[in-house]
Amino acid sequence: MLQRSERALSPRLGPVLRYDLPASLVVFLVALPLSLGIAIASGAPALAGLIAAVVGGIVAGALGGSPLQVSGPAAGLTVIVAGLVGEFGWKVTCAITVAAGVLQVLFGLSKVARAALAISPVVVHAMLAGIGLVIALQQVHVLLGGESRSSAWANVTELPGQVLDAHGPGVFLGALVIAVLVGWKWVPGRLGKVPGPLVAIVASTAIAVAFEFDVDRVTLNGSLLDAIALPSLPEGKWGAFAVGVLTVALIASVESLLSAVSVDRMQNGPRTNFDRELVGQGAANIASGTLGGLPVTGVIVRSSTNVAAGARTRASAVMHGVWVLAFALPFAGLAERIPMAALAGLLVFIGIQLVKRVHIETARRTGDIAVYAVTVLGVVFLNLLEGVLIGLALSIALTVWRVVRTHIVAEPLGAGDGGQDDGDWRIVIEGSCSFLSLPRLTSVLASVPPGAKVSVDLSVDFIDHAAHGAIADWRRQHQASGGSVDIRQHGTVEMDSALDGPPVRDIGSVAERLSATGNSRVGRFVIQGDDPPMPTPEESNETRHAPTPTG
After folding, report:
1. Which percentage of the chain shows pLDDT scores above 70?
2. How is the protein disposed in the membrane (predicted)?
3. How far apart are CA 180 and CA 533, in angstroms?
């Protein structure tokens, strides 16, 4: 009996010990400096970052729906948390984290997780880029020996003065960290597999200790157990409290789900259960806020490192949280030797990494660069919520314009007896023809001279009563002037359907017509549409060494 149990247990423990254990150690080394840096940038106690890393690894790792995703404190929430700490204080911010976790659990139980994926990717990318710029602008002041200002505009305008008053040793340490992170991806062999952030922070700390640099260092105010702070409710400002809860819940949920999608693209194992992932993330935020930790979300840098290190199951994420706990309990005091300028250099690098050239190129290529730019500027110079709402509104407006716009042209085909203008004319109307098209439609129709012989190629998938009336009225007037009108309909919607009832969009008949003619392009397109796009070479390369979008 005992031998059978050992044989049954061995196939389960084998992959864990061979693949997940080494991967968890690598992720632990990546998470340690990032968690401290994100906590300090958020205006929270430094150990709150380690609490969130422990809870994110153990709770979200065990309960979440993405087996290889690693959760913890993320740069994407830094700006939000810093604002909440400034407005409410740390303990109320912990209560906001707990309430946001409850809301995430309700999202997951309501089976609405996939709805979060409907947000335009360009808005999400721009949001992260804006957050990155805010972090970089704040932390460059710390790197130079000063303090971050209250707004992005103040950080920009007061930067020249801060440069003139720069503190030499701090600038050297921060620049050293950035230089190590930039160059680490070119380090060959086994040394290159050591996480760059860990090397940069350890090297700068060792130099600061060896040469006794006079620089500000991390302050912990006690042990990990001392950092546990029960949340408290606000005294007033309940409206702002509710907005904070909703903001943290939505941003953390979207960031976690998008990270899970990226993890699915990196490996061929089980796919993410998005609703379960939200439940796991919510449970982690409830636990983290209750214990005095930062908000938790799925983090792409740790997740991609986990996959690249060979993890096979969720045991890797859970064990990484255990390693953070095992380090923090006896050795957290070592963090007090870390120079603040070194962590500032790490955060400046992370912030700049959030502004990705591949995302800007994609936005430019797809015609969404205006949405990207407006969202970034809104996040940086207004606030995150207003910037995202402006970006979403602009993205929706642009999408509506693209969907409803109509291509309408008129061109002469030949000269008649009276000259070129009254010969044969051809009018092409393509797209969605609605009342929004009337200015262009009536202008083009009016450009056709009286008496011309006109052929109208109507290829639309939508036509409403207003557009139908404009075309019908013009046809009657043109025929009354001695001309002729031949309407040839090639679209999925007939012109007179606008008179039969409420207008509808009909795209199904396209597939039916192509299938009837033996054209298989539609079938191939549908198959391609169902397959998730593979990551670009730039996205694949980002997962090896350097911190990526959400820190």
Report:
1. 87
2. Multi-pass membrane protein
3. 33
